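Annotated sample (chain length 410).
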Amino acid sequence: MAMPQTSLTTFNLHRDIVDSISSERFHAFIKEKNLVRQSGYSKQERVAIIEDAINVKQIALDDFEGFLSNELMRNRNKTIFYSKISFDISRRLKSLQYVQSCLLEANMEENNFNNILKSIQPDKKTCCYLDIQLNSSTEVSKIKLCFAESVVVGKATPNTLPRKETDFTWLELDLQRNLITIRVFDRNANFGGSTDKAKYQFCISQLKSIFNIRDLQDVSYQRSTLYKMFNELLSTAEEPFKRKVASVTTDTSKLVGAIIEGLCLTNTLVIDDLNKRHNNLLIRSLIQENFQQYSSYSEGKKGLVDRYYYTDNTGASVNAKTNDDQRSISLYDIYLDTKHSIDNLKKVEKLWITWYRKITNRFGEKIIKVRTKIEVFKECYVIHFLYEHLTEEAEIHVLSEFEFFERLSD
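Output written by the structure step:
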């Protein structure tokens, strides 16, 4: 396939920007702007098409910068922190005059700007983007900030300097929802390590310094939201197998009854426990025998729990996970041993969930699996997206599911 003719360019997109955005998203921009009719180009070829279109003024640089800000906010920035501020703080920040006076006091630009392309590998961490969104001429609805910083990613050699790249950390204040959202790139892919927490703490310190935000709201109640996810997702996945076991209750009761009689068991608590464990063993056997059915999407199934972590009232903790992709967490003894305690506490600190996102296009319906890790701390809750690039659609889907369970009554 022949490439379109390109001219000598004066605008070149820096490698750090190219690496931060997926090829599919560059393709989407090309398609939206009708730059070429063909498809199938490599990532570098797609970047070259955009660069040439900017240089010959086929598209405006400002237009492309708007695309960049939306994409850099996600893509590699797959770890998202959420914190809550009080209604009084939100009410104060809704005043455009107050917000601009705070920015001026902090020696920052008071009007919207986008310096992302000029902030590659800066000497020090710098604010490169500001977007104050308004409901009216004087009432603020959202404030978005982006901070660029240089990160050393390769060691120096006798002949070369250490290699650097640019990280962009995004901060958003949603004053309608009293919500702070901070999106960071976790370079170590350990999803919850010290690096991304440090980026979160930096943004919070900036908010406190610039806008006089003193305290964040306690969001540890979201552990109950995680429990509702845990309970609902596992119950939905296990339901077909529970029904099948229930259909043979008469036969299993006779079998267990004969065992109880043969062992001369009389303690009612022991007998009840034996009946429950026998039923659970049958359910586990059915799940193992029909794992494809268990792990596949069906109507009403929102996702699957892959792993969980919780602490009880004594401070003891449990970190339960599957060891391979072909076994459900429901098949492990630790799940059966701890579920009763979790049901009593109705709280979970961390969950690893694979969500099902159904999309419909001209080819029909398709199910996309979105792997996440969700954890709750006192001042924030965090959603980590566990794959290469985050799309806006995936983020919206998972956040909407989170909010569904947040609203769900206990």
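Annotation: DSSP finds 13 helices and eleven strands in the chain.
Annotation: Confidence is low (pLDDT under 50) at residues 1-7.
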